[in-house]
Amino acid sequence: MTSVDAAPAVTPTVRAFVRHRRTWIVLAAVLVLGALLVLTIQGTARGPGAPLAPDNPGAAGSKALVEVLRDRGVTVSEARSLGAALDAASSSATVLLYDEYGILDEARLSELAGAAERLVVVEPGFTALETLAPGVRFAGAASGPLDDVDCDLGPAERAGSLSDGQRLVTVDDVAADDGWQGCFRDGDFGFAVANGPGPGGADLTIVGATTVFTNETITRAGNAALAVGLTGASDELVWYLPGPGDADAAEAPTLGELTPGWVSPVMVLAIVVVVAAGIWQGRRFGPLVVERLPVHVPAGETSEGRARLYARSASRTHALDQLRIGTIRRIARMLRLPRSADVDQVTDAAARATGRDGASVHRLLASTLPAGDRELVELSNELARLESEVARTLDPRAGNDPRAASDTDPTGRRP
Description:
Layout: H1 14-20, H2 22-45, H3 63-71, E1 75-79, H4 82-89, E2 94-97, H5 106-115, E3 118-122, H6 126-132, E4 136-141, H7 154-159, E5 167-171, H8 173-177, E6 181-185, E7 191-197, E8 203-207, H9 223-231, E9 236-240, H10 255-258, H11 263-281, H12 299-312, H13 316-334, H14 343-354, H15 358-367, H16 373-394
Parallel strand pairs: 1-9, 2-3, 2-9, 3-8
Antiparallel strand pairs: 4-5, 6-7, 7-8
């Protein structure tokens, strides 16, 4: 490749880049602003803490209950792990357990119930009921506020009633024989609270819903009296909300166990079908075959199509670079310059051949930038005129005046 092929290309300015791609820039800005807006809305809609957390002042938190207990002299501590809850439970403290995501398994639930003397379980899951109170079952949601205490549990009797939004449980005969009783009956549907002995002999109370303890609903009906009575039964209260670290990693199901049995055969069948379709419809293996094109595209049409693309994208500098490269290559060929000749050598040779000033020829072939379409056309005409002058100087039939061609239009028409 000759050095004249490596003529310097002029890079479009930042302003031109932004103008040509303003549509995509606007779309990207809209997407970024939308994402920021969504994140802001989610951040403001999300509560300041975890549900039923003792330090959460939001509607779903329990900070109001914790502050009341502390005013009454109860020491409230938050356990952030099962080990901390077990250590605190061994000191005769009341333990409140709210396992929102059912993290604790049967072994950990039994260990906690065996270590605590008084355990309050809020909105238990299926595993918790089966482990801690085998005869207690879920019974749906309450039909409304409840005022039928129907038990001899002190905090329930002092509360007298509960607001709506409660969840119900039932107590079967086996559990009743073991000492379990239900409080706040909702007709024949079930009870909002159940109390009885735990697996390790602890005083276990099951509250079906978090409504009794949350900041938003604790002041309704007798919710506050029941919450304070259950959690303030001793001088210390351990507030335990299990986290991911309390889960047993060994007991966690694998991906294969979670995947239905039909998924693997279907995936294998899909892979086989894709491979077979690729072999059937794909190109056969073998040497490349040269084929004749069905149509012939004239070079003029190709150049005209590229010119339209440059015009549509306003790539004036790129279009001018292509014209300059072609002009330099043809002038170097006409002047019999070596392939190693650079732009400066071609410029000097063209200036000597045409009698033009070397600096003006260099500006025309390398440095002048078009500010608009009019200047681009003028520069392209100047390039054609320079090439014509070089050709005339080499034509023995032309006159000795190298500037004679400057009076002729590049198309061959005189003004």
